[in-house]
Amino acid sequence: MKIIHKLFDSQRKHFEGKGKLRMLKPLFEATETFFLLPGIVARSGPYVRDSLDLKRFMSFVILALMPPFFFGIYNAGYQSCLVSGLPVDFLTVVIRGLWIVMPLVVISYGVGFFWEILFASIRKHPISEGLLVTGLLFPLTLPPAVPLWQAALGISFGVVIGKEVFGGTGRNIFNPALTGRAFLFFAYPTKMSGDAVWVSISGTAQQVADAVTGATPLAVTVLTESGETVLTALEKAGYTFSRLFWGNYPGSIGDTSAFCSLVGAVILILVGVASYRIILGGVLGLLSTGWLLNYLSASSTNVWMVLPPLHHLVMGGFAFGIVYMATDPVSAPGMEHVKWLYGFLIGVLTVLIRVFNPAFPEGVMMAILFMNLFSPLLDHIEIGWRLKKRISNV
Amino acid sequence: MISVTVTKGYDLPISGRPSPEVKTLKKPLRVASLPERIPFIKPRLQVEVHDHVKIGSVLYEDKQNTDLKFLSPGSGTVTAINFGERRVLREIVIELDREEQVVDFPKIADSDIRSLERESLIRMLMQGGVWTLIRELPFRNIADPKSSPSSIWVVMDSGEPFQASPEVYLRGREALFSFGLKIIKRLGIPVNVSAPDHLRLLGISEMITHRVRGPYPAHDPGVVLYQTKKSASENVCWYLTGQDLLAIASLVKNGKYPVERIVAAGGSRVKTGCHFQTRTGAPIRDMIPELADDTTCVAGGLLTGYVVDADSFLGLHETSLFCMDKGDQAQLFGFLRPGLAKHSYSRTFLSVFRKQPFDMDSGMHGEERACVNCGSCTRVCPVDILPQFTIKCLAADAIEEVLAHGLLDCVECGLCSYVCPSKIELREILRKAKHDYYMEQK
User: What is the CB-side half-sphere exposure of residue B65 using CA atoms within 13 A?
Assistant: First the structure.
């Protein structure tokens, strides 16, 4: 403890006043406060303050991201070994998974922090803890085979355009990680969809890979032959409900397992960091729209319409998106009641996009970004409604 | 009697609650008057250093209303008049005589109260220096006799940790309390008496009009008013605490400026928390001799008070002292610790399982960050303000919108600042906005 104290005290002079590295003061402060929670005394009332700070608040999101992160490493490795014809014992799979995922995480944090430090230094702002979350969320939404330069480009777009141009953390209207992901999706549509991107293939086994289909469940449903129900098509491809739930199939790194997202949701709701209203609202919206479409599907040839609603819940990135992305407090509404509506509409839109616009197989990303846009309006409506009931005092 | 239930707010589980025992302090060497701590007044000095004053001599008056007199809490020689930043009048220190002299004021017998006129009563209270104890909502300035309040609230306890308990200061003074009520009823404004419903207060129970149930700050006059008002015409109210009512009654009954005060001292850094029988303007050191440099001492309620040092004195309106650790020590990996002893409104520490009260300190426990819209402030606000949106309206100078959000209903309880994980000074921002609005109104 004392050694760390002394170390920081001895180096502080370089970052203050006219020190050589004064431009990097935010970086110094961020590093110092990571190790040492500063003993700042309250200067105005109340003179007691809660022990929770934003670092701990964000740390809980990181903690909740651990199940999809670890499973993502395993799954990316497993799918890759499977397709590449490598042995699928635990050790090989994990090493392969780390080999695929860690570069993306390092790139995401590295490039993200570069932009954050750059903006913080110029604006003389402290470095925000929000990036710790963004930097991990973003790679988990990527397909394992995405080139590193694309990951760097995506996080740059997410941090700079998604957040910094609005003034930094707390002022952004879109979720930065999702903004970066959407940018990649639209900038490199050919690389971000199709079958090849979902499994990272080791170079020597390219021929083997071509023989094995890497189609994700969302893609399978589109490929359904006529006369076949979507369920049998899914099951023919090996996607049973339980496999979809546990997440052992090709897809984006972190979002295949609904189970892991469920664990994360439980953590976030228990500690009160994420709003259960948004998550439950989203699930309700998804299920009810799914059922409604099932009901209307008799006269339609759209195979998506007959997909059982519970399948919507476990397929693709919905679970991951509603738990980790939609609950981002900055881009979600701040009022309690409209959070239900916000979540509900994300669920509704996810299904509608999946069903009626198969060009975007990942509906949840679009749905959340779209509803981010509407959250100020939702807040405005609820605030107006609340203020009307108030006895004025002017 | 009306029952009021307040659902929003928050009770901090704090250790060091003062016991109901009352210790009588010996006469202090010095007392002081602290004009700086009285909101919105512009004091004009009436004494100089080396002047001799009696208990009840005028020390200063308010430039805006020269009838408003602030009287000396002691008899002796003015030894120092201290100024603060920008020459704000900070304190007038009086070294007490061995035999104190007292200014005589007119007194009124119980039987003559019925014939008391409003105007003469107001003049009497102003000259007797106790009008300063009656304050006005929404701004909490000293009541303006020209305003037309809808009612007067006598509040027994704000529920704030740890104010002098009504069970202590009312003990043996029930008759005086009832006398005081008769007096202020002569102001011709409906008088309400609100008390927490967990206190029995047997001696005065038939005088209580509102029984309030709820977490801090449910018993604050602003919250009770917010919960009970039916229309905007009720926004302006006068209020005073039970102890202030006793002071008014004492002046009218005895014809002497009342200087007796019961003060609660608590917190983890006080050896034995208890109540003190002392006087207005008593030195802090008399009550807390052990006050050290690593201790923060807050006068006047833990969440709404201000920090005092050992050489300072107790202000006119303050009846409590709270001592705790300063909290200026950096902590290794502080944000990752399980935090069994760290109190939090959230559920992010293991302390959610802790049943015992917590030792508080005056540290911020983090650095200031941008608001992330987490909504904790809105959840605790007892008068349904939306601090996270209100401060953004303020930043945009949209004052009409801020007022519509209920800025003037703000009771300055400090809970929003307490719970904020971004460590934004919400209470200070709202308080300042209210202050600026008051100054503009005049």
Answer: 18
